[in-house]
From TrEMBL:
GO terms for cellular component: membrane. It holds the Pfam family Aa_trans. This is Amino acid transporter transmembrane domain-containing protein. It comes from the Eukaryota. It comes from Phytophthora rubi. The lineage of its organism: Eukaryota, Sar, Stramenopiles, Oomycota, Peronosporomycetes. It is found in: Membrane. Signal peptide: none annotated. Keywords: Membrane, Transmembrane, Transmembrane helix. The keyword Membrane applies.
Length: 143
């Protein structure tokens, strides 16, 4: 019932951002600059593992920010006006994306935090090709 005291019309929601003034705009700009600087510092610190780190962060952040939270907030704001099938589909998508995001976060975190180093040059190739590129025809000759 706490939502009933706020105006949730599209005009009121847009008015919050369009008429916010230069102070709020500077807060957004400052926040974005801080995020870029933070990512730059992390890229320097994790220079050898930055791809693993970005995979780890992207696994949960992208699914959370682009899929889960927008659907959740839509359902929260318009629950009374949303048909039952949209509620069911939205809930299903939230559950599936939470599970998949958690799985990818777990698997990428495994690579990042356990730091298992292989002595093979190509650890994901079959054993007979783990030391050389198996598509290198000049190495194998023209058979």
């Amino acid at each position: 019932m706490a939502d009933a005291e706020y105006d949730l019309s599209p005009e009121a929601l847009l008015n919050e951002y369009h008429n916010s003034g230069p102070v709020v705009v500077m807060k957004y700009v400052t926040l974005r600059i801080c995020v870029v600087v933070l990512l730059l510092i992390l890229a320097i610190i994790f220079k050898d593992h930055f791809m693993d780190f970005s995979d780890f962060v992207g696994a949960w952040a992208v699914s959370l920010a682009c899929i889960i939270l927008p659907i959740f907030f839509y359902l929260k704001a318009f629950w009374n006006r949303t048909p039952w099938y949209e509620k069911a589909i939205g809930t299903f998508i939230i559950v599936v994306c939470t599970g998949l995001g958690g799985y990818v976060t777990y698997t990428t975190g495994h690579d990042l935090f356990l730091d298992i180093v292989s002595d093979k040059a190509f650890p994901y190739c079959p054993d007979e090709y783990s030391e050389v590129v198996y598509t290198n025809t000049s190495f194998y000759g023209n058979n």
